[in-house]
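Dear Dr. L.,

I hope this message finds you well. Following up on our conversation about the binding site, I have prepared a predicted three-dimensional model of the protein together with 2-acetamido-2-deoxy-beta-D-glucopyranose. For your records, I am including the exact sequence and ligand specification that went into the calculation, followed by the structure tokens. Please feel free to forward this to your student if that is useful.
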Amino acid sequence: MKSLSLTFLLAVSALVVAIPLASDPVICQGELITLSETFIGKNNDVKMEYTSCKGTQVHQKKSALFEARQANATNVCGANCNTNCFTPSGGGPDPNECHVIADALRFASENTGAIFPIPTGANATIVMSYRSCRSFFVNQDLGPLAYCRTDWADLIDFIAPNCQSTQNAHGGNCVATDQRWFVQVQHS
Ligand SMILES: *[C@@H]1O[C@H](CO)[C@@H](O)[C@H](O)[C@H]1NC(C)=O
Ligand SMILES: *[C@@H]1O[C@H](CO)[C@@H](O)[C@H](O)[C@H]1NC(C)=O
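The resulting structure of the complex is given below.
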């Protein structure tokens, strides 16, 4: 009986550990300066910052598919992304505190608007923080993007609980399949 249930547990955990492990990407080589700061959510307790990288904004990968600089943002709501968990285990954010950020994004979606803009270049990173949890949206495209707040919320609610120490991880990200953007969840 004991070996049967152990086999079952191993099979279940093999199914769960499907997310590849990676090391945390450096978003800004230099200092991430806050350009503007607002508090969102029902209790106005989740900090949202538009930032500027004083130094080198690190883009994970440049692709020939990227469009030239344009006046209008490219809407990437609903676009697919691939999740990576950051190794090793330990020091990740509390998924419950990440969930507060996700709910604040859903609240802002209903009360402020479904879509938000993300600039490009040095200003390509938006940061959301609540207690132990920090989430980044990084635009890697050559032009501005627009994204849905509820999609960001859903990614946070997927990454935070699935990239924990039990997965040998401390947070993770989801990189758009076309590399235009990624959402990261980590300890603040
Ligand atoms: C941007 O969008 C507006 C409104 O849809 C349109 O009139 C304008 O031509 C667009 N600009 C560019 C550069 O595509
Ligand atoms: C970043 O934003 C600041 C403040 O809005 C602006 O002055 C600056 O030109 C922007 N930088 C880039 C590279 O777009």
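In brief: The CA atoms of residues 126 and 168 lie 27 Å apart.

With kind regards,
A. P.
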